[in-house]
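#structure-requests
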Amino acid sequence: KLLLKPFVLLIFSALLFSTLTDQFLQNQIETVIRSKDGLSNIIWFWGFLSLVNAMVFPLLVAVLSSFFLVSNRAENNIQHFFKNNLELCFIETLRAWGQSFLWSFLFIIPGLIKFADYILTPFVVMFSNKYKNGEVDALQYSTLISKKFWWRIQLWLSVFYLVIPITLYFLFDEYQLFAIHPISATLLVFLKTFIELLFHFLILKLFIK
């Protein structure tokens, strides 16, 4: 039944476009690095686009997944949901990334801890009445809730951000390239769609508690 849901196709489309964009940008960066003329300033341009892609599409997938998972209780109009949440999610997520990067400059571990603390930030923006009423700061409230489920969040982050990506890389590295294996690459994106939905379901379940 999930295969027939239009929101699953939206999430799949976002992941597909993000993957194609990432592979294109990585190819451009590798071309610049391997150039016989040496590195040029254009690498900063491709690097910036790669960073934007790595930030924008995960957030878009998070918003789409959240709407899909709670659509029976949240606003039924996805345009209304996006209008009310996407801009604030982007702003607060940028704050979370900035804070995590600042801590990473000191040591890697504190940066990772901050990343885990702020993992619930988009959900605070989308579903917290306290945030919508201006009673709490998104990052602080995310940290407060995350500490209640610290071990479970660490487990899910380890599984979905390390174990699964590393496993897919070693098993299907070449088959993820659209330029070589478009069919298998498309199927893997479809698999990642359901992995994303499962991850957001587990994290959202903790937040709702």
